[in-house]
């Protein structure tokens, strides 16, 4: 046996050398067939090469993965968020076929009320939970946040009981009166998730948080589909939204009590009152900026329903949801990287260079795909979501100027915090809210929903544009330096959009079964153009980044 092992080792060193060798074994000469040894040696080599390849691949993955706990946490959260959003995107075509646009309109109004109230549900004290040095003080902040949450949920229930009919009459959603009692429940469960979310962030329990992101996407989708199949109507969408807000809450609560029980036992009423005074700036200042931001994104849904109809609000909700889903994920990831590098860049006095580079990356990533997608949105929405959702695709075209500027501006808006310009951020949020409300009201006075959306998109885009010019000039970036980048990418995107429009005109599009494949071809061509445009515009940035690293 030892002689065979010896020869196998030789074959591993010289695999192509046919060996015929005599050796002694137990006092006798043994002849080993060269072909037999070569066969076993080659098999051994293939097995060893395969094992080495697997180990090399594992080593490569380990090298690519971030080493620090902080960056691993970001990777886990980003991946889980992507999975949760992927579940939502993939199940949306099913959900839109189980519910009517009017059901989505009622959900849009309910979600707007829920989102606005949740901003102030804990009076923003939950943002302070990661700040104290000791877990004991943080635990008192957690209790303070939950006390405020319970109070706001109770007040919400009282308002629903006393003024529920007036609320649904003002928002033009009479069907909502049957489900408005779910609003306090949604506020409490969603607010509690936010509070324990910040506790998990304090403890750097990123894997625990990552699981809840997937649970939220899956729980919401399963609830909506199950109740939709049961033909429950609007309540299925509302309960699915509540489940999506609160899913994973039990996981966070149990994890907090199981791993941090000692800190939670140090809660005292006097310390809770002290925490309320110590961190009073959060409810006094942060609340208003966040409230204006949320109202600017949620209030249009209520106004569209009140001034026009719940069906219009439903169309707008779907178009806004679809156009923001992938963009929020990409923009948020870029924003995280930019925020971490901007603070260091300010200390080292090269913030202008970092800002213009982030701006160029955002413009290249977002402008082309958004404009190209807008060209075919009215034709793809019926194919994906059902024939009665074509109007939502048309709304995407009207909203695209605002969406492009919003996508570019949102990540670099972290410069407000880096430059400590919180007052400027508050002014921006108020102007954005006023511009959106004025646009919708002007269109409503004319009784024209198309005009309302055009004014809403145009005025919002103007606010984003001037805010972008102001914040970039604050860090030392001149106007023409970033404006020429924007003009160039818009021009390139319009060329691709024109090509797609010509192709679309050549394809017979209808929404009957006979011409179904025409829509499928258009979808394939659109995805191909989007992929080519994205790769073409992003590849130079990636190559330049690699050169800089070297």
Structural features, described:
This protein has 550 residues and is mainly α. The protein folds into 3 domains: 2-62; 69-320, no CATH class; 342-403 and 414-419 and 475-550, no CATH class. The protein is built from 20 helices and 2 strands. The chain has helices spanning 2-13, 34-64, 69-98, 101-119, 135-170, 182-202, 206-229, 234-246, 249-259, 261-264, 269-278, 281-307, 310-347, 351-385, 390-412, 415-418, 422-445, 449-474, 479-506, 516-549; strands spanning 21-25, 28-32. The protein has a two-stranded antiparallel ribbon with strand order 1-2. Strand 1 and strand 2 form a beta hairpin. The longest helix has 38 residues, at 310-347. The chain is globular. The two termini are 51 Å apart. The model is unreliable at 1-39, 44-48, 51-58, 60-71 and 545-550 (pLDDT under 50).
The oligomeric status of these chains comes to single chain
Number of helices: 20
Compute the separation of the termini in Å.
51 Å
Shape: globular
Query: How are helices and strands ordered from N to C?
Result: HEEHHHHHHHHHHHHHHHHHHH
Beta-strand percent range = under 5%
Largest sheet: 2 strands, antiparallel
Q: Which radius of gyration do the C-alpha atoms yield?
A: 29 Å
Low-confidence sequence ranges: 1-39, 44-48, 51-58, 60-71, 545-550
The secondary-structure class comes to mainly alpha
Q: Strand order, biggest sheet?
A: 1-2
| Average pLDDT level | 76
Range of helix content: over 70%
DSSP strand count: 2
Number of domains: 3
């Amino acid at each position: 046996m030892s002689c065979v092992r010896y020869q196998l080792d030789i074959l591993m060193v010289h695999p192509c050398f046919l060996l015929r060798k005599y050796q002694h074994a137990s006092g006798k000469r043994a002849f080993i067939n060269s072909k037999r040894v070569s066969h076993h040696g080659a098999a051994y080599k293939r097995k060893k090469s395969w094992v080495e390849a697997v180990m090399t691949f594992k080593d490569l993955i380990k090298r690519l993965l971030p080493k620090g706990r902080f960056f691993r946490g970001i990777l886990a959260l980003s991946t889980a968020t992507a999975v949760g959003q992927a579940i939502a995107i993939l199940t949306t075509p099913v959900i839109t076929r189980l519910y009517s646009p009017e059901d989505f309109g009622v959900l849009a109004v309910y979600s707007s009320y829920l989102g606005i109230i949740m901003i102030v549900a804990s009076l923003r004290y939950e943002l302070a939970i990661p700040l104290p040095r000791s877990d004991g003080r943080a635990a008192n902040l957690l209790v303070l946040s939950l006390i405020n949450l319970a109070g706001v949920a109770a007040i919400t229930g009282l308002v629903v009981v006393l003024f529920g009919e007036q609320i649904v009459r003002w928002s033009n959603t009479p069907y909502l009166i049957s489900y408005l009692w779910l609003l306090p429940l949604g506020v409490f469960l969603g607010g509690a998730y936010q509070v324990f979310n910040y506790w998990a962030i304090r403890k750097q329990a990123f894997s625990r948080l990552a699981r809840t992101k997937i649970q939220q996407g899956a729980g919401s989708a399963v609830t909506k589909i199950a109740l939709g199949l049961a033909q429950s109507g609007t309540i299925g969408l509302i309960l699915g939204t509540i489940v999506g807000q609160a899913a994973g809450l039990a996981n966070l609560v149990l994890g907090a009590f199981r791993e941090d029980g000692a800190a939670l036992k140090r809660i005292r009423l006097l310390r809770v009152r002290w925490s309320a005074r110590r961190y009073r700036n959060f409810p006094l200042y942060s609340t208003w900026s966040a409230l204006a931001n949320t109202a600017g994104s949620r209030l249009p849904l209520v106004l569209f329903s009140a001034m026009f109809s719940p069906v219009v609000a439903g169309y707008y909700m779907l178009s806004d949801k679809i156009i923001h889903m992938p963009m929020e994920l990409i923009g948020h990831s870029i924003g995280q990287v930019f925020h971490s590098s901007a603070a260091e860049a300010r200390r080292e006095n090269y913030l202008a260079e970092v800002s213009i580079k982030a701006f160029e990356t955002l413009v290249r990533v977002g402008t082309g795909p958004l404009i190209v997608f807008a060209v075919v949105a009215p034709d793809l929405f019926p194919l994906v979501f059902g024939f009665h959702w074509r109007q939502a695709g048309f709304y995407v075209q009207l909203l695209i100027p605002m969406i492009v500027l919003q996508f570019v501006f949102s990540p670099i808006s972290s410069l407000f915090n880096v430059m400590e310009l919180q007052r400027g951020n508050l002014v921006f949020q108020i102007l954005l809210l006023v511009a959106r409300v004025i646009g919708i009201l002007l269109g409503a006075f004319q009784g024209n929903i198309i005009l309302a959306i055009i004014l809403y998109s145009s005025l919002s885009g103007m606010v984003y544009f001037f805010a972008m010019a102001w914040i970039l000039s604050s860090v030392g970036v001149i106007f023409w330096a970033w404006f020429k980048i924007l003009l160039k990418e818009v021009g390139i995107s319009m060329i691709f959009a024109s090509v797609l429009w010509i192709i679309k005109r050549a394809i017979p599009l209808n929404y009957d079964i006979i011409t179904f494949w025409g829509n499928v071809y258009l979808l394939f061509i659109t995805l191909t153009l989007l992929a080519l445009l994205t790769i073409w515009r992003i590849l130079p940035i990636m190559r330049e980044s690699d050169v800089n690293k070297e």
